[in-house]
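A.,

Following up on our hallway conversation. Structure tokens first:
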């Protein structure tokens, strides 16, 4: 055996010790961020001007809880209108018929180009330019008349303003999801004899959901907060309810914090639901993990590295 062979043999017998990379910058940043967060939380919790006793007093009163219920109703109705209308508009935009495609484009152009607050106000004061609705033959006799205010109540006006505006945004989300599917899928379905509707329902939309779900979840959370705009037409949602209370008690800041805490609670629940819905529709791709799952995965990998080093 030569000298070089003996050196190689001794090198193989030496224990290989794996040393993990030290990320000192991450630890320093984590300590600084933790300090800032703790300091801010302590400052807010010990700020007497926020009147936490008043917040606890009004957090679960009947008016506020009823306002939460109205806010959730508005969100659900507006999002159902938005999703259904958006899917229909997206299909119309992709239609080869230029008239149908043009009508969908004009709808999206108008409702995305005007503020949602203006749209809500227009529906709320529709009686100013359409006093009544009529049922009859166009350009002929009418059989019944209805007052606009009796048909479109403030709650209905809020639903229409939010839902019709949301349909314009959802149409672009659904259209982007449909366009993300490989055109070869459509061609293969056509070769198998499927109609355009069957291809859309059975082939395209199931694959497009992975792209549609994340922004739709964001739209739901955004709608929950945007629904507070209906307070301008006296719909008794969460924000309007607390406005009525602090208009009587003059405790503005505590009541606004009550509304903020309720909005934070509802958006947090929706965020959790969005996470698991995204993970379900994203099966077969890179799976998202919760903070606890990421921590356990990292801890397991670290233990495996240490055992390998031993």
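Then the amino acids I'd put at each of the 310 positions:
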């Amino acid at each position: 055996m030569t000298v070089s062979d003996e050196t190689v043999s001794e090198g193989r017998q030496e224990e290989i010790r794996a040393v993990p990379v030290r990320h000192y910058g991450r630890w320093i940043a984590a300590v600084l961020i933790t300090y800032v967060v703790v300091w801010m939380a302590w400052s807010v919790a010990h700020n007497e001007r926020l009147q936490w006793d008043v917040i606890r007093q009004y957090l679960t009163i009947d008016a506020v809880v009823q306002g939460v219920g109205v806010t959730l109703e508005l969100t659900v109705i507006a999002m159902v209108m938005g999703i259904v209308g958006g899917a229909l508009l997206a299909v119309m935009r992709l239609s080869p018929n230029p008239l149908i495609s043009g009508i969908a484009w004009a709808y999206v152009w108008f409702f995305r180009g005007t503020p949602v607050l203006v749209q809500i106000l227009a529906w709320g004061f529709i009686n100013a330019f359409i006093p009544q609705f009529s049922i009859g033959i166009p350009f002929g006799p009418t059989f019944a008349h209805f007052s606009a205010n009796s048909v479109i109540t403030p709650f209905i006006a809020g639903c229409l303003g939010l839902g019709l505006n949301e349909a314009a945004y959802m149409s672009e989300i659904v259209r982007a999801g449909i366009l993300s599917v490989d055109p070869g899928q459509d061609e293969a379905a056509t070769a198998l004899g499927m109609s355009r509707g069957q291809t859309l329902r059975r082939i395209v939309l199931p694959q497009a959901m992975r792209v549609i779900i994340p922004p739709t979840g964001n739209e739901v959370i955004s709608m929950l907060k945007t629904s507070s705009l209906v307070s301008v037409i006296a719909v008794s949602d969460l924000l309007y309810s607390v406005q009525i209370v602090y208009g009587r008690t003059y405790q503005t800041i505590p009541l606004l914090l009550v509304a903020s805490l309720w909005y934070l609670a509802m958006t947090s629940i929706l965020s959790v639901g969005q996470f698991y819905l995204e993970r379900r529709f994203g099966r077969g791709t890179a799976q998202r993990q919760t903070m606890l799952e990421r921590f356990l995965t990292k801890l397991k990998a670290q233990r495996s590295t240490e055992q390998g080093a031993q």
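The two ends are 30 Å apart (CA to CA). Curious whether your intuition agrees with the design.

B.
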